## 1
Amino acid sequence: MTTTVTASGLGLRYGGTRALDDVSLRLTPGVTGLLGPNGAGKTTLLRVLATAVPADRGSFTVLGHDPGTSRGRHQVRRSLGYLPQTPGLHPDFSAFEFVDYVAILKELTDRTARHREVRRVLEEVDLGDVRGRRIKKLSGGMRQRVALAAALVGDPGFLVLDEPTVGLDPEQRMRFRELIAGAGEGRTVLLSTHQTEDVAMLCHRVLVMARGRILFAGTPAELTARAAGRVWSSTERAPGAKAGWRTGTGSFRNVGDPPADAELLEPTLEDGYLLTLDDVSAEAAA
Ligand SMILES: Nc1ncnc2c1ncn2[C@@H]1O[C@H](COP(=O)(O)OP(=O)(O)OP(=O)(O)O)[C@@H](O)[C@H]1O
């Protein structure tokens, strides 16, 4: 599959903190999930790729454009849609006015064509009927869809989404998942999230980050397979468990190093993710 975004050796320090430490990656069309604990460097990576902050080291390209030059940076910005963690919606604007304002910033200068594009993206996120309503009168899920519509203006080839489903109830999250899946058709999407379920359901590839480094890059099935043979059931909390809890059926579900005669269970992507983080912490401590 065509590589659309590449990064090589990205580094960024904030004082003594290495927010990005030698990050290299390749993205292809479709939705790639970015998982990592708080402070892993996910937002920093997204901000660098969105050209919101420059890296101290390394380079990257987006759809063949190199943001290291001012012309390249301009082209990257034109091919980019970015939904930041706090989108900065103006509460007194209507949904239409806000998305139109973003479209102006994106240099869609022809008023008629721009308004047509604003209506198109608001329809795409299912907000066509409430486009005249003030943002402060919209629900949390609707506001998040306004922010997604703003990111989709101009039909960008690369979409960067920073924890877009945070704070949404399950129904809104599912609705948002549908929209992200739709946005990922024929487009490269990088989705930062704490929801392993979003990754399992949506993503064709997944990256795991911790302490500024990429620990894993592969398919969701490959991440899940990391926990094969390491999830088991027991009647009491098992000594080799890195995590274990009593489930609704009364037995314990354990993740870690099982005894030889363990009754193994089917792993989930979350198990693979947790064990990937745990294995790396154990290596660092050794
Ligand atoms: N502007 C900044 N100034 C100083 N330190 C920063 C700044 N931005 C991020 N950091 C630090 O860099 C590290 C990576 O932060 P980042 O926000 O990228 O992590 P994250 O994986 O997105 O976390 P979360 O899931 O909590 O959003 C953290 O240690 C954070 O405290």
## 2
Amino acid sequence: MSSDTSAAASSAQQPARAVLVGVDLGPDASFDPTLDELALLAESAGDEVVARVIARRKAPDAALFVGSGKADEIKLLVDMHQAHGVIFDQALSPAQQRNLERHLGVPVADRTALILEIFAQRAQSHEGKLQVELARLQYLSTRLVRRWSHLERQRGGIGTRGGPGEAQIELDRRMIGERIKALKVRLDKVKRQRGTQRRARARSGTFRVSLVGYTNAGKSTLFNALVKARAYAANQLFATLDTTTRSMFLEQAGRAVSLSDTVGFIRDLPHKLVEAFEATLQEAADADLLLHVVDAASPVLQEQMEEVDRVLVEIGAADIPQVLVYNKVDALPESQRPRQAVDALERMPGVRTPRVFASALQGQGLDALRDLIAQAATGTEPADTQMTQDAGVADDEAPLPSPSGPAARDDDDSSPRSMQA
Ligand SMILES: Nc1nc2c(ncn2[C@@H]2O[C@H](COP(=O)(O)OP(=O)(O)OP(=O)(O)O)[C@@H](O)[C@H]2O)c(=O)[nH]1
Ligand SMILES: [Mg+2]
């Protein structure tokens, strides 16, 4: 970070130059060798990625996370690009972060800090802001209190006193502890209010549908297409933070259902963040039907789906019926595009999950999706004829998605064709 913090702070629009670091800790650890997701996170936070560094180790170094040779290499890149900071793809201990900052001479953030920063930038509603503040304070309370912004670009708040003394840190810690308590009380109240609203909706018999999925899968785009609304959709991670609910009339069912757009999930989502966002996530947990939106064109589709499933378990939503929406089929190479709109997967023994191939952007598969929602809302079973709808996305000769292809899962129990039998 340049020593001229006032200049950096006064031009909040100007991106901070960041060096990204990922450490490959062997086959068991979840590791993204491209660092693409971290780069997208950094860009979503307003940073400019100037270099990416990959290190390989059996275990993280206790002091620096990377070896000292690698740390020197990172320092060289920081100097060369005049970077403002370094962002690690993995969680750093407070001590590692401190040591690295001393070694590199610039602020060092980890993935969690980066995600928290994005959430802080995005929070719009009162509730969203409370949730973000709670998550940040919980993260900060375990570290030396030194900054708010992940790359120290903001001024004010607790963060920017240069090198606080131990007494100051103690004071900050105590204040933070009290603030956390106060926030939890206020969020509890929000939670109770939401609970009351939900019970009222449940009494009114409204069938509740919730969009869930990995961040950037296209939930908001699909939400907009389905309810003809204009929720904020963008090629950013965590574009949506607040839950939006709209009523959607289904001709097929002759009734309206409520549809909610929710915050996206991400790999290694800090547990504390999930906890802080409980009130928002509860909306998904109380739904009658989940539309699990996946980016069918993502090379890491499988991992993303598993991550979403993990969070659903964590918030107690694992047993809610799901429809898988394989979105962005328009972005698949011609040869991998599915030929029909709907099939079903046996994701758990004995449970067939309907799957819709869709393009929220181009409006494909939406009718099939509405049909499935209507069936769920009226408690009717999908008829075989409805399972063979033409997706209109590929000609008859196009091959079906292969189990190894991006639009299929390994546990795909049947080829989509068998549904037509
Ligand atoms: N090619 C293609 N792009 C899509 C489609 N649906 C959404 N996108 C793009 O994917 C990006 C993310 O879309 P969003 O709707 O914001 O995704 P989201 O899941 O709401 O993301 P978060 O709110 O950030 O979690 C945007 O750039 C969309 O234009 C689709 O069907 N095809
Ligand atoms: Mg969104």
